[in-house]
Specification:
Blueprint lengths: L1 E4 L14 H9 L3 E5 L10 H7 L2 E3 L2 H7 L2 E3 L6 H4 L7 E4 L7 H10 L2 E4 L13 H18 L21 E5 L3 H12 L3 E6 L2 H10 L4 E5 L2 H10 L2 E4 L25 E4 L20 E4 L2 E4 L9 H30 L1 H6 E4 L2 E2 L2 H6 L9 H5 L2
Parallel strand pairs: 1-2, 1-4, 2-3, 4-5, 5-6, 7-8, 7-10, 8-9, 10-11, 11-13
Antiparallel strand pairs: 6-14, 12-13, 14-15
């Protein structure tokens, strides 16, 4: 199969879909790989490394998209890339369709095969979402701490505390991969941390593995409101795979929060956990509503691009090799986890939460039906 990897064009998105090691693996398996010139520079990977691994370096994105049967990316195609997508082309990347109607409609119109990292499964786990959730989760308290500084609009509170002065209160909504990683880092800073979740087994596990300054609590509206009143940093980390994130923090809740507190909504890719969330960019990462600083960057791991690129490729490579070896249909028939990642197939939505998000169930066909035709 012909594999293509274009340069990411999202604001300050410095990750890249393939590492030289991944290129070598594809080439060793008998596939050809083309890389857009300069695609890896943001992750400190030069063209010469790709060439040494066996890739062809092409001068522009149009050539990569035109030559590839499978495109391997990091982030969803942006509007300037829509016309580059070709009918029947397999695109393997993060899509987060449920938060983006225009992307959903464009991919339907272009009749691509959309295999979304974020809904590929292994048992109950999301193996291709996990590495970036780890990065974003660990970043969240750091971003919260940064924007708590008075010059950046925050309360002027040092999260670690100092002798005679208490540390910050950090509230984490959701105890999954993002939430547990955020809790570990916030606890390491010395903050007092509360994690809210509705899964009792998960709460029990968090209580066993996280430090003593983390308290896992069952999430209900009373605890949410009580904890918002005392929080200095709030991390939104609730995930419903493939679906829009539930709105845990309502607009009215912001009035309960301390002026200058910081909301870091890691769930922004799926629409966010807060009603007032809208996606921001690394070049303009925050905005303020009701005296609450909102940090809602939709590609947080792009800030630590080299770490993120290599962590992502460690997870995606074996699935990409399956797709390249067998094609999307056979690979999805033989691997349930990949089939769960199939969000769109040649104009048909194959992920029900996406169809439900936009009220287009008439365009929905179960993945089983399209891969077994």
């Amino acid at each position: 199969m012909k594999i293509g990897c274009p340069k990411e064009i999202k604001d300050n998105e410095n990750r890249v879909g393939l590492t030289p090691n991944a290129v070598h693996a594809y080439v060793a398996a008998g596939h050809s790989v083309c890389i857009e010139k300069g695609a890896g520079l943001g992750s400190a990977v030069g063209d010469e490394e790709y060439a040494a691994a066996g890739a062809d370096i092409l001068p522009e994105a149009d050539a990569v998209w035109a030559n590839a049967e499978m495109i391997v990316k990091v982030k969803e195609p942006l509007p300037e890339e829509y016309d580059r997508m070709r009918e029947n082309q397999l695109v393997f990347t993060y899509f987060h369709f449920a938060a983006d109607r225009s992307l959903t409609e464009a991919c339907m119109q272009r009749k691509i095969i959309a295999l979304a990292y974020e809904t590929v499964t292994e048992g109950r786990a999301l193996p291709l979402l996990k590495p970036m959730s780890e990065v974003a989760g660990r970043m969240a308290p750091l971003m919260g701490a940064y924007y708590l500084m008075k010059p950046h609009g925050g309360r002027g509170l040092l999260p670690t505390g100092v002798t005679g002065v208490p540390p910050a209160e950090v509230l984490i909504l959701g105890g999954g991969v993002v939430g547990s990683n955020a809790a570990r880092v916030a606890a390491g800073l010395g903050a007092r941390v509360t994690v809210l979740d509705v899964d009792l087994e998960r709460l029990e596990h968090l209580g066993e593995v996280l430090p003593a300054n983390v308290r896992p609590l069952f999430s209900d509206h009373v605890y949410v409101e009580d904890c918002l009143k005392t929080a200095d940093i709030v991390v939104g980390a609730v995930l419903l795979p493939g679906a829009a994130a539930p709105k845990i923090v309502r607009r009215g809740h912001l009035k309960l929060m301390k002026p200058g507190s910081v909301l870091v909504d890691v769930a922004v890719d799926q629409g966010g956990c807060c009603e007032t969330t809208h996606a921001t960019k690394h070049s303009d990462p925050v905005y303020v509503i009701d005296d609450v600083v909102h940090y809602c960057v939709a590609n947080m791991p792009g800030a630590y691009a080299r770490t993120s690129t290599f962590a992502l490729n460690n997870a995606t490579l074996r699935y990409g090799l399956l797709l390249a070896a067998h094609g999307a249909e056979k690979a999805c028939r033989e691997h349930l986890g990949l089939k769960n990642g199939l969000n769109m197939y040649k104009g048909t939505v194959t992920c029900k939460p996406v169809a439900e998000a936009f009220g287009i169930l008439d365009a929905y066909t179960p993945a089983d039906e399209v891969v077994n035709r």
